[in-house]
Specification:
The protein is an alpha/beta fold and 155 residues long. 43% of the residues lie in helices and 14% in strands. It has five helices and six strands; from the N terminus they run βαββαβαββαα. It has a six-stranded mixed β-sheet, sandwiched between helices. A hairpin with a 5-residue loop joins strand 5 (88-90) and strand 6. Helix 1 packs parallel to helix 5 (130-147) and helix 3 runs antiparallel to helix 4. It is globular, with a radius of gyration of 15 Å. The chain starts with a strand and ends in an 8-residue tail after the last helix. The mean pLDDT is 89.
Length: 155
């Protein structure tokens, strides 16, 4: 099992939680981004820089993910691809994407895209909060407890 991170838009607070979790659970963590990322020195943590371009990082993650892997992403189409390939997907705000909810999320995403294309101001997501950080840490801890075993509690 490996953790993949769609890292271009992933909040720093989430990356820091992931760094600690990878060390504690001894699980490989790979951040994929189109910019150079600094990561802690660790045998469990690495970063892959991909060329700039629309969905290049997403496509690389989708290509590399294996059944059982966990992908951290807010990108719903990427989450859908991960689930189709037998992986798991978790939003940085703590929402677990599943086979049961991903189609609904894709439909809502497409609907909102259509509204925005027609000129409707749909607003944006709320600011990333401490509650989002806690929800993410809780879901990650539960996932690692089930799939990685051992002492995985995240401070």
């Amino acid at each position: 099992m490996q953790i993949w991170v769609d890292a271009d838009a992933c909040p720093l607070a989430i990356k820091e939680i992931l760094y600690r979790a990878a060390e504690r659970a001894r699980v490989p963590l790979t951040l994929v981004a189109n910019k150079l990322l600094r990561t802690p020195a660790s045998p469990f943590i690495r970063a892959i820089q991909v060329p700039r371009g629309f969905d290049v990082a997403d496509n690389e993650i989708a290509r590399l993910v294996q059944p059982g892997d966990l992908v951290i992403t807010a990108d719903i189409p990427l989450a859908a691809q991960v689930i189709e390939r037998g992986g798991h997907a978790l939003d940085p705000r703590g929402e677990v994407y599943t086979g049961d909810n991903i189609r609904e999320r894709l439909t809502m995403r497409n609907f909102m895209d259509e509204l925005r294309s027609s000129g409707v101001d749909t607003g944006g997501p709320s600011s990333f909060s401490q509650g989002d950080r806690h929800a993410f840490a809780k879901q990650l801890d539960q996932f690692l407890s089930r799939h990685a075993g051992g002492n995985t509690a995240i401070p």
